[in-house]
Amino acid sequence: MITHCVGLSLAPSSSIESGVAVCEINTGDLIYVDKLFSMSDIETFFNNYPSLKNSIICVSLPWDNAMLEGKWRVLSKPYQLIHTSEHPFVNKDNWTQRFSTRGADLLDKIKKSGADVSRFEVYLTRQKLNLYSNHKERSSADCKFLQSALKYEYGFDSLPSNMMPVAQLEAIVGTILAKEKFKNQTKKIFEFKGLDVINL
Question: Which of 5, 18, 68, 76 is an S-S bond match for 178, by CB 3.0 to 4.6 Å?
């Protein structure tokens, strides 16, 4: 029986914080919110999480922030089509790869243990949930908007008045999507490393 939703906002590297949030399905109350850094921290969380098989887990897709040679490649990376040509100059240093594969092995292990694991793209999900602001992504104004919207539009009354880390806010977005999956309101938009990427 599914009792909890887990959202994990996975960062592209251990130098950037990841966020995790756990929410009860019936009441909608947040029961746990935290920051994690290394993959061993994330693995320890899931190893000690008692309701793994009774939860729907949604993990974000982190952007691949690998260093590239040219500034134009960095700026144009999200907008490039994925080339299928084998020509050596088309995809030099794999610069068209949008998403990082960080944590894929751990998530595969969790899925094989019997847990319900899906991936999601934070910004697409925020758009579908009407949580997308006109401010620059992850800026102070954007974070303030997201926190206020989660508190007042989605009923997370326990959120504090002071600013929370953006990783934790994105993890809470993951719990909302997990709850929608529980209601069969989501659909698969593509697959990434053996896991379904879902959205509304």
Answer: 5
